[in-house]
Amino acid sequence: MSAQPPHDWVKEWLGRARSDLVLCKTALETPGILREDACYHAQQSVEKALKALLTAMNVAYPRTHSLDVLLCPMPQFSPKLILDIGLLFVYNWIYFILFS
């Protein structure tokens, strides 16, 4: 991944985040696909969006799938803001899963 300029990686991560979001929505609308499979793509979408944000901010992050770990290297954000972002993700996905 390091061969590309950072702005290319931001676009790449955002494109992948959008793709996972489409897969999540499609999974929710398709009979026979388990909700947990849709939730997997929801988590992946958020993970990739966070990686895009960190890349855009030029903040190093470890190779991980943990949203908690990806939120930690944002020192310029207060702990309350990070918690609010996390809660917003949770509420957004609950609403999306229940009412979409």
**Would you report the number of β strands?**
0
Name the structural class: mainly alpha
Number of helices: 4
Strand content: under 5%
Describe the protein in words.
The chain is an all-alpha fold. Helices cover 72% and strands 0% of the residues. The protein is built from four helices and no strands. The mean pLDDT is 80.
What are the defining features of this structure?
100 residues, 4 helices, 0% strand, globular
Give a brief description:
The protein is mostly helical.
Write the layout of secondary structure elements.
Layout: H1 6-29, H2 35-56, H3 67-71, H4 79-99
Helix pairs in contact: 1-2
